[in-house]
Specification:
about 190 residues; alpha+beta; 3-stranded antiparallel sheet; 8 helices
Length: about 190
Amino acid sequence: MQKKSDFIFRYPPNLQELDLATMVGMYRDRGEPRRAAPGKYLACSVTHKLLRNAKWWFGLYYSQGAWDQLLTKSSEGYPLTEAELNLLGLVMTCDREPLHREFAEKNIGVMPKLGYLIVNDTRQFGFIYENEHGFLQITAAGERALQGICRRLYGKRFQPEMLEIFHYDLNFVKQYLSEQSTDQTSLF
């Protein structure tokens, strides 16, 4: 599936180089306002304008206007990335058979430690629900957030082909397609 836009938040591709404490700290501090030191300035990574105050995202700075533009529709202020799209999409795609948290953490396109943090945050934000056995379900707010990021990136509603797992896990694709084919009765 071809993307129409890349104008969203992104996790750095080399996060695996950080130790766990540093990564968790950076993850928890994302979106916090930062103030430039006296006599110094920060540069917005979108507008490239110099700023005295900015919001911080894994070493990048954003003006409030640029931050607001990067937020997707129905995200309710939560900075969604492709990892969250993969998480919400996986949970929605596996709606018939519940998706276990451990599988989601390993297959959303980021390292499992970051996947753990993302699952926790999306759960606390009300996008997904986790039962006592560790199975995930998407909420109505999660569906709206998923549709918002899909429309930003692809210009259309969510389709399972948008998921990263569709590009590298043939067993998942076969299982999904076999589930889809059971809905339609064969005419032959």
